[in-house]
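> tool_call: predict_assembly(chains=two)
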Amino acid sequence: MVDELKIEQQKIWRILETVADPEVPVLSIIDLGIVRNVEIGASGKLKITITPTYTGCPAMDVINMSIRMVLLENGFKNFEIKNVLSPAWTTEWMSEAGKQKLKAYGIAPPNPKQIVCTTDAFQEEEAIQCPHCNSYNTQLISRFGSTACKALYKCNDCMEPFDYFKCH
Amino acid sequence: MNDPLIDYTLHLADNTLILAQRNSEWCAHGPVLEQDIAITNISLDILGQARNFYQYAAILLGDDATEDTLAFLRDNREFKNCLLVEQENGDWGKTILRQFIFSNYQYLLYEKLQHSKDEQLAAVAAKALKEVTYHLQWSSEWVIRLGDGTDESHQRMMNAIEELWPYVDELFINADYENELLADNIAVDVPSLKNKWIEKITSIFDEATLQIPQNVFAKTGGKQGVHTEKLGYILAEMQFMQRAYPNSVW
């Protein structure tokens, strides 16, 4: 019985892996660490727990809908998607595979050493590697990029601008 | 009907909704593209907080309340935001100063609120605190840049301080609903935040060659629903669609 449940759970994780983030479509919601838990209740009811990356992330409604669609497509009818805020999402939950996919997509992944923003003005900038030419000779243009989770950088060597998925 | 937890949650929600609405007026009007993106990103973060608070308030209220009815169908006197957030954007300097005053307050508030006995308020605060850190850093840097910039930018920051300082004290006065929730460790005792708030302001103002004004007459009432005339105009614009075409959807 226990094993069957496990197999079923793994199957659901694999199904959820096909749900892409609408803003960064190379990443699945599993890569991002948005799916926190998959639970199968005694009655067979499925409970999926998800958490937003940023408080105001406008992608959550779409993600919710995509999960609903993919579960229905795979024959699941009895399920509930629960949105939780605590514990707060962090880039430390992003998978290694996800970081590689980000870089290949042209977005610098969060630095392996988690350095988060502090309240201090003009703090020293992190050295961010250019996803195009791998140079560390880059500069911050703006802490706020095309979406809340990214900052805008420029490479001083290849001169290309790029997004950095900031540590959070 | 007067449940202090509902009033408190609405106060937190209204503060963030009105400031988000104000900041979003900059969309496509920012001084440069990167800063236009920055202020609208900040607006989005704050709007997200507002939604979380309204969703919680709607659960507490029950019946047919939703985050949308609370944002779009309440009138002027029902809003419990502090007067600071409804003040007009003015120039970039005034918007920056308002953000700095508020983010500095909000950072200290959420630092405490994340340990509230109310689990949902604590979760919203803990999540938002990381984002508020960015807002505080960004607005601090701009206060320094403009205060210690040219004669023109310095003068404009002085004007902004004169216009906004009357609304500072209200942030640090407990409303009845806050007082009622103190004993249960649900609400944050806002007067206790003031010393740390002043410390931060002083350190940034020193770098920015600006001074904190003394003996300013404090304007209050927003937390009790008595607003400046500016709120009416914000609500008129924000609520128009739902008032004119009830239940219309995007």
